[in-house]
Amino acid sequence: MVNAFFVFCGCVDQASVAVVEKWGRFVRLAEPGLHFFNPFAGECVAGSLTTRVQSLDVRVETKTKDNVFVQLICTIQYRVVKEHADDAFYELQNPQQQIQAYVFDVVRAIVPRMNLDDLFEQKNNVAKSVLEELEKVMADYGYSIEHILMVDIIPDAAVRKAMNEINAAQRLQLASVYKGEAEKILLVKKAEAEAEAKYLSGVGIAKQRQAITDGLRENILNFSHSVSGTSAKEVMDLIMVTQYFDTIKELGDGSKNTTVFIPHGPGHVKDISEQIRDGMMQASSSNV
């Protein structure tokens, strides 16, 4: 005796789940693998759903609190819950349209209460609010919301241009401040260097004059003691004449020195010595 069974077999793909009906009524879910169905008993596969993570891009246009129109691009990643695939199959005819409607509702309720700058800073909070709302709603339909990403915030073109100009002006202002500070530091350091140079030059000149004075005093004393009958005035005149001729010699020997034309002769030397001596006496009398 041979028993004949009138059955059909079917294969459900990986990452999918099939909905099996009997006489138009849901009976079970068929997971991936080989399954047998008896069409004479009214069994058939009504359809299948993928359990992979799916992505839906939603573009929402709304207005901020400071009356700036912006476009928000959200990416929603969702999937069918395998255990509730029958709800996802029978409850929603177009799940993408349902998700998009809730995203529009939440975004347009939150963004108008925020300024544009706050929206850029708190875009993750907006995405979190959309995620919480979608999780509560779509769970009843057999869908799980995995992630919501706020991909981009696009203000109006005129607003973007104005924001770029403001940013450029602020950077130019900051650059001017830094440039002014640098020039100020350079001038201060230059003035300090000049003051230090003048101070050191004055110290050097004072020490040079002190050394010359000490040398002259020593020469006068030595000459007065060595040659009897000479006065300090005569010794001083002799030293000045000697220095005068030394100076003339240096001007002649130096190839790069500037040539100076001065009256020259024995009589002029006497006049120069008298002028120097009279100047020193006037300076001494004014200091007393």
UniProtKB/TrEMBL annotation:
Family annotation (CDD domains): SPFH_like_u4 (cd03407)
InterPro entries: Band7/mec-2_domain, Band_7, Band_7/SPFH_dom_sf
Keywords: Lipoprotein
Domain Band as annotated: residue spans: 3-167
Pfam families per UniProt: Band_7 (PF01145)
Transmembrane segments: none
Protein name: Band 7 domain-containing protein
Protein species of origin: Panicum virgatum
